[in-house]
Amino acid sequence: MSEVIRSDIDLLSRAATPRRNLLWRDGLLAAATWATAAAITALLPDVITWGATGLFAIVTGAIAAVFLALSLAVPQFGRSARTLVHYGPWFIALGIWLAAWELLTAKLGWLPKPFFSPPQGLLHVYVTDWDRLLVCVAYTARLWGLGFFSGIAVGFAAGVALGWSNRFSYWGMPLLKLIGPVPASAWIPCTFFIFPSTFQASIFLVALASGIPVAILTAAGVEQVNRAYYDVARTLGASKRYLIFKVAIPASLPNVFVGLFMALYYSFAVLVVAEMLGAKFGLGWYLQFNTAYSAYANVYAALIVMALICAGLVHLLFVARNRLLGWQKGIL
């Protein structure tokens, strides 16, 4: 009798235990959408001949094969594949987007050349003009790095001074509020007069666009620090230097990171304009040069590169914020 009861309990426990999925459904759907894009590219005729059509069909077909393999392998990985599973719907959407993009441009011609380029047009640019793009990325990285980091350094120091010192805030905050709303590109005539070279003028424009939001939000963060923190620190014998660097600045870091995110986006917006001031290379110069010749495939290819670089920097900034502000979890 006891053996019968045990067998019934085992059957019930097995029935209650959820079965592991044998397939990653989103991966299978992603494989189908990417395979559809490859089939449309390879089998349907082009309205206008484009370069790298065969290569694009091979690339999308290979990615479809990868997703098909992952649809079988991901369920075996368990929690280690959480990131891949999380972005599954995006992989499906990208496949649908590529298939529709290919169909509307290269196959049906509803979005005409030269204003719209099919995906293989962008791939052709990366294959044939990769060396010039890499040089432009290097020039842009140098200009952006010098402008952005100098701007946020000055903006952070000014923001701490504005938030800490009433006298400095009395004179500095009105000037900051007056300059802040003015677009950085509006200062181009002044930069030609002040700076001896267009490269230095470009650095100043990027630094100005980066420093102002950091200064404003850092000052607001320092002003919003709870005065009880200062009183407790003074009771324990803290000096003025300690109050600034150990109390005011750490407590204002959430505002500082908001300013850094804004500065990052503003700096990229100004970067294109800054590189039009007589630059010989750079992504902004590349956009302007190809726009003048109606080479819109090159323009779109450069925009994608710029967007990927900006997205990568934003991700790094999120990582840094999560590391430094881990104490906020469960509080905010």
Structure description:
This protein is mostly helical and 332 residues long. The chain has two domains: 23-108; 130-326, MetI-like (MetI-like fold), CATH 1.10.3720. It contains 14 helices and no strands. The protein has helices at 2-16, 25-43, 53-77, 82-86, 88-107, 119-128, 130-164, 166-179, 188-194, 198-223, 227-235, 240-274, 283-292, 296-324. α2 (25-43) packs parallel to α5 (88-107), α7 (130-164) packs antiparallel against α12 and α12 runs antiparallel to α14. It starts with a helix and ends in an 8-residue tail after the last helix.
What is the percentage of strand-forming residues? under 5%
Number of helices: 14
CATH architecture of the largest domain: Orthogonal Bundle
Mass-distribution shape: flat
Oligomerization category of the chains in this entry: single chain
